[in-house]
């Protein structure tokens, strides 16, 4: 049996949890979120601890992770950091729009979801929010505009620390 299904989640003192049969509502310093529950699982709360019971082990592990991420998100929040690297590549913030110049003949405008906060410092974009899925989905959406180049070093939109993991391929003339 997976250790994740046996995990007991402790609720920090800064987070308030309200539990009903259909959903969990969490509120903390970084925001508030809710999670809809599957009818096959039973969420048990005792004082400052939560655990999950179910006959379906896959659902138990999944909802254990979802509840843990929910609590962590409202307590500390999540952030994704993107580096925009390339000659002439620029990032600006206009109202609730992200304006990117990434080597196209036109500017790319991306509307920012209301639940996310964006900070820009130079060519580094920091996406902050309380929902893990929304933060990293928005980071992935931005990254699709100009993914890291596999032929040239330091060109494209990178997740922080990702530039060390990308293997460069030789060009046509060097493949021989």
UniProtKB/TrEMBL annotation:
InterPro entries for the chain: Ribosomal_uL6-like (IPR000702), Ribosomal_uL6-like_a/b-dom_sf (IPR036789), Ribosomal_uL6_a/b-dom (IPR020040), Ribosomal_uL6_bac-type (IPR019906)
Q: Pfam families given for it?
A: Ribosomal_L6
- Annotated coiled-coil segments of the chain: none
> What protein am I looking at?
21707_t:CDS:1
Q: Which UniProt keywords are present, listed alphabetically?
A: Ribonucleoprotein, Ribosomal protein
In the record, the note on similarity to other proteins reads: Belongs to the universal ribosomal protein uL6 family.
Q: Where is the Large ribosomal subunit protein uL6 alpha-beta domain?
A: 86-152
